[in-house]
Specification:
The chain is built from 4 helices and no strands. The protein is mainly alpha-helical. Helix 2 runs antiparallel to helix 4 and helix 3 packs antiparallel against helix 4.
């Protein structure tokens, strides 16, 4: 079954327009991506017992955590925050 057929069938079955179905599907996808990014940030927080990326940065600088892979995790954290901000922006447009 191709995307158009699936969308049409599901739209008819649920009694919503295809546009609304696609819109809600995209919002659900965005929300899931946000949850996954937040989960990855939570894992980094737990790994280093820190609350913020700034706290992790300080822990790296003062040597209380090993630089590698902490620097990589710090970069991942920053990128995930940027990704979350972008996704929130998309969802609110």
């Amino acid at each position: 079954m191709n995307v158009e057929t699936l969308t049409s069938s599901l739209s008819q079955r649920l009694g919503v327009s295809e546009a609304e179905l696609i819109y809600k599907g995209l919002l659900a996808f965005i929300q899931n991506e946000i949850r996954l990014a937040e989960l990855e940030i939570a894992n980094i927080r737990d790994r280093y017992s820190v609350f913020s990326k700034e706290e992790l940065y300080e822990a790296i600088k003062n040597g209380s955590v090993v630089e590698h892979p902490a620097w990589e995790d710090y970069i991942i954290w920053k990128n995930k925050l940027s990704h979350i901000a972008f996704l929130h922006e998309l969802a609110t447009e």
